[in-house]
Design a protein that fits this description.
Blueprint lengths: L6 H7 L5 H16 L5 E3 L2 E4 L4 H16 L7 E4 L16 H16 L3 E4 L17 E2 L2 H11 L8 H10 L1 E3 L13 E6 L5 H15 L4 E4 L6 H15 L5 E2 L15 E5 H10 L9 E9 L1 H11 L7 E6 L1 H10 L1 H7 L3 E4 L14 E4 L2 H9 L4 E4 L2 H9 L1
Parallel strand pairs: 2-3, 2-5, 3-4, 7-8, 7-10, 8-9, 11-12, 11-14, 12-13, 14-15
Antiparallel strand pairs: 1-6
The protein binds FE3-S4 cluster (F3S).
FE3-S4 cluster binds next to strand 11 and helix 13.
């Protein structure tokens, strides 16, 4: 065995800290050995995915309940979106049966001490690591954001390995935790102008196509808002399967590593081509959604401004975290949005909610939402800038 454990880690593996901790350490040591880790690293933050009952089913819930018998998390741990708004599930048309089972899942996490805020943007609601910190996150968009925009260090965990990290406070030292696996492998020279979240999402898709899984160092992006980086992280992770990128003068590790020799140039035309690629012919738009990844407070404020004294003519969901929704309630944004007939859905999203087949044509500003709405829910999709998405909703 090449993996060396400290006394405490060995005691966890030997069952001295209880059955759940032992099971968790078994998962982590097995992973560490597969990937050739030499030691475990302490983690300070965990994000768990696979929360929707639609994905877990009874076998997943049974596994969770077995860990919840004596398992307690050792570090700050939050959850990915669930299959429904945990409080107002009825307004989204979720069945009582599904709701009952989803709440059983949440209860099991709660028993283990997990903060049951269900969001893919934990970094917007208090689960925010700092530069260089080792963490264990399982949500591809949040992983790319944490590694690239924050400069924290995490692999793309799965639900079980993230939960195991939470129960032990450890993760094996391999992958993106190590300097050598964070270095850029190809330069992307971008020639063009990015104006909004849609454009950043399209660039992420364009990069994924040409970089073929390599870590990119992007030149030519002048500036980016948190919302644009959130959308870009989701897109590059979804279409490219990578968990880290660097942008010159924007992301914190841009000066850390030597630059690679290979350069690929992408232009505005490439961005436009990918926008077109994510825009199907739709006769009848019946679903409009914003908030993939979960909407920030600033996005909800803008949506409220655009929907003021208007009425939506289609089913419209703005998906976000519960803490952000609560601030939106306090600021009066929720009231404006609901008066317009749109819905703010907390704790969930249009991908993990069980809505397959319920709609035909969806409009969004998110490249990631396009990917899953097409692939998982069989919807036709169109990607537009936020203002045009709202125009579509009210026309
Ligand atoms: Fe988040 Fe759901 Fe999109 S989990 S990143 S809103 S697919």
């Amino acid at each position: 065995m090449t993996l060396e454990l400290t006394k405490e880690e060995q005691a966890m593996l030997d069952g001295e800290y209880g059955r759940a901790t032992q099971k968790a350490m078994e998962i982590l040591t097995a992973l560490g050995e597969i990937y050739g880790a030499k030691k475990m690293l302490p983690v300070t933050s965990v994000q768990i995915s696979g929360v929707s009952y639609a994905n877990l089913g009874e076998p997943g819930l049974k596994f969770l309940n077995s860990l919840a018998t004596d398992g307690k998390v050792r570090v700050l741990t939050t959850l990915n979106p669930a299959g429904m708004d945990l409080e107002e599930w009825e307004k989204l048309g979720i069945s009582e049966d599904f709701a009952k089972n989803q709440l059983r899942v949440i209860a099991a996490f709660q028993k283990m001490g997990v903060v049951t805020t269900a969001t893919c943007t934990p970094y917007l609601v208090g689960n925010i690591p700092h530069y260089g910190e080792h963490i264990a996150w399982a949500e591809s968009s949040a992983v790319a954001f944490a590694n690239s925009v924050i400069g924290a260090r995490t692999n793309r965990e799965g639900g079980p390995s993230a939960l195991a990290a939470a129960l032990t406070g450890r993760t094996p030292a391999y992958g993106y935790h190590l300097d050598q696996n964070r270095k850029p492998q190809v330069i992307i020279q971008f020639e063009g102008k990015l104006e909004n979240v849609r454009d950043f999402g399209a660039l992420g898709k364009a990069i994924a196509e040409v970089a073929k899984g390599k870590i990119v160092y992007i030149k030519g992006v002048q500036n980016a808002t948190i919302e644009e980086l959130k959308g870009f992280s989701a897109s590059i992770a979804t279409y490219g399967g990578v968990g880290i990128y660097h942008i010159e003068r924007i992301t914190p590790e841009w000066k850390e590593y030597a630059l690679p020799d290979e350069t690929i140039t992408l232009t505005q035309k490439d961005v436009s081509r990918h926008i077109n690629e994510m825009s199907d012919e739709i006769d009848d738009v019946d679903f409009v959604t914003i908030g993939c990844p979960h909407a920030s407070l600033r996005e909800i404020e803008i949506i409220a401004e655009l929907l003021k004294e208007k009425k939506v003519t289609k089913e419209m969901w703005i998906t976000t975290s519960r803490p952000v929704k609560e601030i939106a309630d306090q600021m009066g944004y929720t009231k404006i949005i609901e008066n317009a007939g749109a819905k703010i859905a907390a704790d969930t999203c249009a991908v993990v909610a069980p809505i397959k087949g319920r709609f035909k044509g969806m409009v969004t500003n998110s490249a990631k939402a396009c990917y899953y709405a097409r692939g998982r829910n069989n919807f036709k999709v169109q990607i537009k800038p936020l203002k045009e998405v709202i125009r579509e909703a009210i026309q």
